[in-house]
Amino acid sequence: MASANLNIMIKAARKAGRSLVKDFREVENLQVSVKGAGDFVSRADREAERIIKEDLRGARPNYGWLGEETGEEAGEDPTRRWIVDPLDGTTNFLHGLPHWAVSIALEHKGEIVAAVVFDAAKDELYTAERGDGAFLNDRRIRVSGRRQMIESIFATGIPFAGRGTLPATIKDLSRLMPLTAGVRRWGAASLDLAYVASGRYDGYWERGLKPWDVAAGILLVKEAGGFVEPIRPEQSVIESGSILACNTLLFDEFATVIRSPH
Predict the structure, then answer these.
(1) What would be one Pfam family of this protein (predicted)?
(2) pLDDT value of position 79
(3) What domains are there in the chain, each with its CATH number?
(4) What is the pLDDT of residues 60-91, one digit of tens each?
């Protein structure tokens, strides 16, 4: 049975997802317009966050808030805050690619205790609560059981528009790709982590992330039996914006490759 907080999160994610799906159907038409779809998608993103914020803060007005669009707001309860990405995979959404998600996490005393990642285009709802396992549409999920790197698929985000982590990522790829069955770049960190949790990917790494990109996915992977660490062990994932996530059988070998000096 889901807790009251998780039920509130699921309701908000589904409500925002319905709004985004409706907007997503308009993107194809907007793509061919002179102005393009960019302004429309920005409005869709902000509206999704408004819906989520209204539901979550309406139900728990004393909790803090950290959202991609509206930033950080302190709550009367300093130990709890919502961490929200209303539309993870905005570029996919903008281009009419059905791979994007609503991501909502609840943090308590610095730890993620509840998580929802909703892939509305595919109607896939990933949920987790600390100590209670991870689920996809109410079916328990586990990380993969693969033991060989050469049989495994990994995911990452390849930096765009001149972002500073590109050289490091290229070096990662040059070392990792010859050892694996492939690397995927699908453009939505929350779903990359959800896919590790559900065994679709065997591992995932990325740098330059924001808390709302990974907060919910961290708990999904952990509750599905996987390991999550920052790329540099002395840091934290949320603070550093870097992440390694993998099944337990491959984690050490995978981490060694990514953590090798560049």
Answers:
(1) Inositol_P
(2) 96
(3) 4-141 (3.30.540.10), 149-259 (3.40.190.80)
(4) 999 999 998 889 999 999 999 999 999 999 88
Tokens coding 2: 């889901």
Nearest to 115 by CA among 29, 32, 20, 222: 222
Asked whether 63 and 47 are in contact (CB, 8 A), the reply is: no
pTM of the model: 0.93
Annotated binding site: 68, 85, 87-88, 213
| CB crowding 220-243: b at 16 or more within 10 Å, else e | bbbbbbbbbbbbeeeeebbeebbb
Detail the residues annotated as belonging to a binding site for Mg(2+): 68, 85, 87-88, 213
The H-or-E segment that residue 129 falls in is strand 124-129
Identify the burial level of 56 via C-beta atoms within 10 angstroms of its C-beta, where 0-12 means exposed, 13-18 middle and 19 or more buried: buried
User: In residues, how long is the chain?
Assistant: 262
Query: Do the beta carbons of residue 152 and residue 146 sit within 8 Å?
Result: yes
Residues 154-176 as b or e (16 or more Cβ within 10 Å = b) = bbbbebeeeeebeebbeebeeeb
